[in-house]
């Protein structure tokens, strides 16, 4: 089955990073840091001071197109897991989810899993882009995240 087949609605990538879980999680949970490791070159900027700390929080991100997205945090465990549903400002999320899961394998070794899940996506105009999201695209962000986390 092709990765961009519309029947594949959960795409993920996994890799180990030679850095502790806290450093990686900080780069993910701070929206202002996300554009520095976004492998899809889709994120432009986020205002500082939006560090995610709980389910129910909303952080705001500006895309490279200039569009603004509100990201509704639906899963959160400090240092282990974070997931959000993006939406247009003031709108209900259309149902696609971005998730990061971190598993410490040692003091300076972490297994990271990045998942894009569009099982519940109800916006027809977004489905073509969703179906085009591949594991390789997710891995691009993970590789950039690892390079940034491991150098600091």
Automatic annotation (TrEMBL):
Lineage: superkingdom: Bacteria
Annotated Pfam families: Polyketide_cyc2 (PF10604)
Stored InterPro entries: Polyketide_cyclase/dehydratase, START-like_dom_sf
Entries under SUPFAM superfamilies matching the protein: Bet v1-like
Name of the featured protein: Polyketide cyclase
